[in-house]
Design goal:
By secondary structure, the chain is of the alpha/beta class. The chain contains four helices and seven strands.
């Protein structure tokens, strides 16, 4: 396991959006192609900021914002990034109706905010990222790798 993965599975502190984006860019460099990244965390925990860092790692320069109102956004760079906000989905069937799998072009990353809304739709090999806000307003970021 790489040093970065060891650090992230133990948990990493971030003091700013810039640090969170930089950490995401480092992870983006080693995240396997065609992966699902489930981003867990409350509002303001840094989920979209993390996705912005992934986008930068893959040469995506367009603005990355939360896809809350349109549910998902597709970005193209060195890797295709599909950014989904599952908060408004009621079930796994709602995800199926979006037909996202029809748009996937390898290499891709499917980044899912609020994955707890669609737990049965996530593959067993999904990587889970937990983002929390500490009392001092810094952020804690911890990665859970799949047990395969």
């Amino acid at each position: 396991m790489s040093e970065l993965l060891e650090q992230m599975t133990a948990g990493v502190h971030s003091g700013s959006a810039t640090e969170t984006e930089a950490l995401a860019a480092r992870l983006g460099a080693i995240l396997p192609a065609d992966s699902v990244l489930a981003l867990h965390g409350d509002l303001g925990a840094g989920k979209t900021t993390f996705v912005r860092g992934l986008a930068r790692a893959w040469g995506i320069d367009e603005a990355v914002t939360s896809p809350t109102f349109n549910l998902y956004t597709i970005y193209k760079g060195e890797r295709q990034l599909i950014h989904l906000d599952a908060y408004r989905l009621e079930s796994d069937a709602d995800l199926d109706a979006l037909m996202i799998e029809d748009f996937l072009q390898s290499p891709w990353c499917f980044a899912v905010e609020w994955p707890e809304r669609i737990p049965d739709a996530l593959p067993a090999d999904a990587w889970h990222l937990y983002l929390t806000i500490n009392a001092d307003e810094t952020h804690q970021i911890q990665l859970k790798l799949p047990d395969l």
